[in-house]
Amino acid sequence: MKEARYPLLGLARHRMEIDGEGVTTLAAGSGCPLSCVYCINKSLLRQAPTWVTAAELYEKTRADDLYFRATGGGLCFGGGESLLHLDFYEALRPLCPGWRFTAESCLNVPPETVARAAAILDAFIIDVKTLDPAVYLAYTGRAQGPLRKNLEYLASTLSPERLRVRVPLIPGFNDAADQSRTEAALREMGFTKIERFRYAVR
Ligand code: SF4
Fold it and tell me: 109 CA distance to ligand 1 centroid (A)?
């Protein structure tokens, strides 16, 4: 079987409380199914990645092993859509026991992928955008697809502490009322860690 590799774009070390609990290293990877109008990673995602094996990523990040273990932190996979790389996380997991694996995801991926991810990863930071189908399509360039179903699955499968959901106010696309409707729908599903914020648009 072909060895799983991760399309690494860069590492950011010693992050505190940004990517989940404890000290984390963000491993930014390429690839995303959406084309968000205000995506701050557009130029990053266009760069050619370095395809690393699990052993190679472990070597690049092991210097912070003590920090990760002492604080309950670990690696956060983001940049683009992190759920595209589940084979890689499975290969990496045995190399670094005790590290928390957090995934940043838009959750607009097949339900089978989400079910598998729930069994592999420790925590999720979900960039919902909005649950309004028309606003979502206009902003991301893609229909919501299984987003709602995937949210309901995670909310009913994992404890709320493992799930952080981000609900932005997107200038020119939605408003505070839309944010409130999305937040209410998420609370109804069982999410408790919900972050409302405004995209800074230049
Ligand atoms: S989901 Fe995130 S990475 Fe993908 S296009 Fe939107 S903002 Fe960019």
Answer: 13
Any atom of ligand 1 within 6 Å of the Cβ of 80: yes
Say what the pTM is.
0.95
The pLDDT assigned to 140 comes to: 97
Q: What is the pLDDT of residues 109-143, one digit of tens each?
A: 999 999 999 999 999 999 999 999 999 999 999 99
Instruction: Report which protein residue has its CA nearest ligand 1's atom 8.
Output: 39
Q: Backbone phi, then psi, for 62, in 5-degree steps? A: -65, -20
Q: Which atom of ligand 1 is nearest to the CA of 104?
A: 2
Ligand 1 atom closest to the CA of 80, numbered from 1: 3
Q: What type of residue sits at position 162?
A: R
Give all domains of the chain, ordered by start, each with its CATH number. Answer: 5-198 (3.20.20.70)
Distance of alpha carbon 101 from alpha carbon 120, whole angstroms: 8
Enumerate the H helices of 74-175 as residue ranges.
86-92, 111-120, 133-140, 147-157
pLDDT tens string 25-75:
999 999 999 999 999 888 888 889 999 999 999 999 999 999 999 999 999
**Torsion, Cα of 131, 133, 138, 144 (10° steps):** 80
